[in-house]
Amino acid sequence: MKKTIFIRNISEDLMNFMKSDVEYDVIVVGAGCAGPAAAKKCAELGLKTLLIEKALDPGAKNVSGTCLNMAALGDTDLHYIMKCPIEREIHSMRTYHISEDRTTIFTEMPKEGVLLLSIRRDEFDKWHTEQARQAGAEIRLGTAVVDIIQENNTIRGVILESGEKLMCHVVIDGGGVNSIVGRKAGLIPKRSGKNMILYITAAVHLGEEIINERFKDEQGGCCIEYYLAPGTQYKTWPWIFPKKDTVTLGTGGYMTQELINDEFPTVEQYMRNFMNLPIIQKKLEGGKIESWGVHLEYDNKIEQKTKNGLILTGEAGGFVIPFLGEGMPEAFLTGIYAAKTAAACIKKGDVSQSALSEFYEDMIQENLFLQGFMYVGEENKKSILSKPDEEIVEMMQSVIMGGGFITNAVHTKWFKGVENGSIDEVEEAKTFLEFIQPYRQVSTDYMDIYREMRAQVNSNISEKSKNGSDEK
Ligand SMILES: Cc1cc2nc3c(=O)[nH]c(=O)nc-3n(C[C@H](O)[C@H](O)[C@H](O)COP(=O)(O)OP(=O)(O)OC[C@H]3O[C@@H](n4cnc5c(N)ncnc54)[C@H](O)[C@@H]3O)c2cc1C
C-alpha cells in the first residue's frame, strides 16, 4: 500500500516538472563519441539541446580510439559517420606471433573493401561536435559539469564548475570512463581497482611515405598489426595502427591481483619490451615519439543505465569491449538511442526510469551489432582470463583463420558444448548464430554506402573550392 502511494507521488511530481519551465529539453554531458551523436539526434528530433564539454577543443585529450569498425557503420543511423575526416583506409589485419625460435604471421584480408577507418580523435571529435551544432544543438566548450541537480530521486539538471545551474527534462551522460554524472547519480559503482585494463599508448611520427612502405599489404592497401610476444602484455594484444604520417602503438595489462603484485612488470615496461622487439625497431626506425598516454578501460557491466531523468551512454554506460579495444560504434549507437528515447519520453510527458528504460533497452536489444559484440566480449573475456598466453595465441589464430571474433566466439562455445556433452551450450551458440545472421549479411553491403558517402564529401569539397572558400 505504502509503495503504491510513493510511486504515484513521484510520477505526479514528474508530470508537474515536465510542464514547468526548464532551459533545455536535454542536456548532454561530454563531446567524445556518444555525446555529439546524442546531441545531433536530439536536435534533429526537435529537442532544445545543450552539449557540454570540459575540453576547450573537443577530442584534444581523447587520444584513445583510433580505428572505426566499418561493418558497424553499415547501420543506417551511423552512415553519416562515414563522412568524417579520415587518416587512412585500413584494408587488412596482420597478427605476428613471436616466440623464442620463430615468428608466425597471419593475415586477414578480404578480397575487396575497407575493414577499418583510421581516424584522429582530435579531428574526429571536433568534426562530430560541429555536426551536432549544425543540426541545431547549442554547444558549450571548456566548462566541466561538476554535479547533478537531484530532487525526489529525479535528475533535473547539472551544475557547472562556475556554479551555474542548468535545468532540463533529461540528462544524457556521455562523460566516458570517468563519468561524474553516472557516479553522482549512484548508477556507476565504485571502482575496486580490479576488472579493468590499464593501457599505454604512444604516437610515433614516421611520415606518410614510410608508413605506406612499412605497413602495406599484398593488395597495395594498408594494414593494422597485432603482436603476441613474451613480456609485452598481460592478457591484451599489443598493436600498431597506422595514421597518415604517424603510427600509434598500444599495449597494456588486465588488472588482476597478479599485475598489481610487484613481481609483474609495469605496463610501461610492457611498452618498452614491445618497442625493443627487433621487428618493431625496424618498423619504427627513424621515427620520433610525439606523445605518450596511459588510459583505463573498465570491464564491468553497468546493470542500471537509466534513472528518472537520466540515461547513461557509451563508456559511462559500460558499452565497451576492452579486450577488442572497441567502443566507438557502441558509443555512437547508444548516444543516438538515448536521444530517441528522450524525444519519445518527453513527448509522452513521462521521463521516469521505467519509461526511459523500456525505450532504451528495447532499441539496444534489437540492434544486432550491439548484441553481437556484447556476446563476443563476454565469451572472449571468459576464455582470455582463464587461458595462458599460448592458448590465447591459438585463439587469436582461430579468430583470424575462422572469419573474425563473432564466428570464433560462436564456434568456441559450440565446440565447448560438444566437449562437455552440454546440449544447452550448443543450442545457445546455434540460436545466437541464427540471430546474428542478418547483421553478417548487412555487413557485406556497407562498401556501396561508404562510396556514396565519400562521393558526397568529395563533391562538397569541390563545390567549396569552386566558390573559393577555405578548405580544411
Ligand atoms: C587505448 C585505447 C584504444 C582504443 N581504441 C579503440 C579503437 O581503435 N576503436 C574503437 O572503437 N574504440 C577504441 N577504444 C575505446 C573507445 O575509445 C571508447 O569506447 C570511446 O571513446 C567511448 O566513447 P564515450 O563517448 O563514451 O567517451 P569518451 O570518448 O571518453 O568521451 C567522453 C567525453 O566527455 C568529456 N567529459 C568527461 N567528464 C566531463 C564533465 N564532467 N564535464 C564535461 N565534459 C566531460 C571528456 O572530456 C570527453 O570528451 C580504445 C580505448 C582505449 C583506452
The fraction of residues assigned to DSSP E strands is 15-25%
Oligomer: single chain
Instruction: Tell me the CATH topology of the largest domain.
Output: FAD/NAD(P)-binding domain
Number of helices: 16
Taking pLDDT < 50 over at least 5 consecutive residues as the criterion, the unreliable ranges are 1-8
Nearest-integer average pLDDT: 85
Give a short account of the largest sheet: 8 strands, mixed
Structural class: alpha/beta
**Cα-to-Cα separation, first versus last residue:** 64 Å
CATH-level-4 superfamily name of the largest domain: FAD/NAD(P)-binding domain
Shape summary:
globular
Rg from Cα: 23 Å
Summary keywords:
472 residues; alpha/beta; FAD/NAD(P)-binding domain; D-Amino Acid Oxidase, Chain A, domain 2; 3 domains; eight-stranded mixed sheet; seven-stranded mixed sheet; 16 helices; 18 strands; 43% helix; globular; binds flavin-adenine dinucleotide
Explain this structure to me?
The protein is of the alpha/beta class and 472 residues long. It folds into 3 domains: 2-81 and 121-189 and 302-366, FAD/NAD(P)-binding domain; 87-112 and 193-298, D-Amino Acid Oxidase, subunit A, domain 2 (D-Amino Acid Oxidase, Chain A, domain 2, 2-Layer Sandwich); 378-442, no CATH class. 43% of the residues lie in helices and 22% in strands. It has helices at residues 2-19, 34-44, 70-73, 121-135, 181-184, 208-214, 257-260, 267-275, 278-284, 328-348, 353-366, 368-386, 389-401, 405-420, 423-442, 446-466, and strands at 24-29, 49-53, 67-69, 88-90, 92-98, 103-108, 116-118, 138-141, 145-151, 154-160, 165-173, 196-205, 223-228, 239-242, 246-254, 288-298, 306-307, 310-312. The strands form 3 sheets. Strands 1, 2, 8, 9, 10, 11, 17 and 18 form an 8-stranded mixed beta sheet that branches. The radius of gyration is 23 Å and the shape is globular. The structure holds flavin-adenine dinucleotide. Residues 29-35, 52-55, 62, 64-67, 144-145, 174-177, 180, 199, 201, 250, 295, 297, 314-316, 320, 325-329, 331 line the site of flavin-adenine dinucleotide. Flavin-adenine dinucleotide (FAD) is lined by residues 29-35, 52-55, 62, 64-67, 144-145, 174-177, 180, 199, 201, 250, 295, 297, 314-316, 320, 325-329, 331.
